[in-house]
Amino acid sequence: MSLQIFVDADACPVKEEAIRVATRYGLPIILVSNQGMRPIVAANVAQVVVSSGFDAADDWIVERTVAGDIVITADILLAARCLEKGCRVLNSTGAFFNADNIGSALAMRELNAHLRETGESKGYNASFSKKDRSQFLQSLDLLIQKAK
Fold it and tell me: Where are the chain's structural domains?
């Protein structure tokens, strides 16, 4: 099977960029969401809307990926599951998840959840910038070149 790109599409700010890069390389890209999406008509783009059940999109992605596929997600738990399958995982700011950093990412996720629960943190995320978008494009391009 050839390389595929899976996008955890709910609230993903770089769907259009991922589609553009996938199209340039002639790769299939699958956008997976719990909610409806604006239809995209392109031969290499598939859009999947799963049930609104807890982790339904994550489960769908994990069940269908194979080692070497690329997964784009900001969900650290999904990233960990995909890494276990041998996938390459990238978040929307262009940062790579890998065996060396997923443990600390999971730990920080737990710590931040605890801080939000106790009221010590409001849980605000930094706004998405042009630099983030540019870094994402560079990182995705690099991942695809390495994979090919």
Answer: 5-98+130-147
